[in-house]
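ARCHIVE CARD
CATEGORY: sequence design from structure
SOURCE FIELD: tokenized fold
FIELD CONTENT:
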């Protein structure tokens, strides 16, 4: 129930932008905000409530854009931290889907 936004081959290695089918990004973000730093939309429009112009230019419709979350990794991010984040996000998505 997750779709990667953008090319799987041509992307920045420290950025993951995905859509969670059937979930509003804002609800997911509210559920994990005390444990994971994430953004919705694209980097250049993360503060806006409108669908990102970058996502719409990529052919992503408004509904899917509202379901989109962007994860960024830093130089000090460890594999163990990524594994923990995956677990947190997976549990939160399952909880929100009921």
């Amino acid at each position: 129930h997750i779709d990667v936004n953008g090319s799987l081959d041509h992307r920045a290695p420290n950025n993951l932008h995905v859509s969670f089918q059937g979930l509003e990004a804002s609800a997911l973000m509210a559920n994990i905000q005390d444990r994971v730093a994430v953004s919705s939309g694209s980097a250049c429009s993360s503060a806006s409530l409108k669908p990102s112009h970058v996502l719409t230019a990529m052919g992503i419709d408004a509904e899917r854009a509202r379901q989109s979350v962007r994860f960024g990794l830093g130089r000090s991010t460890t594999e163990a931290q990524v594994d923990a984040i995956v677990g947190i996000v997976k549990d939160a998505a399952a909880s929100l889907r009921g």
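CARD ANNOTATION: The longest helix spans residues 79-97. The mean pLDDT is 88.
SHELF: design records, drawer C
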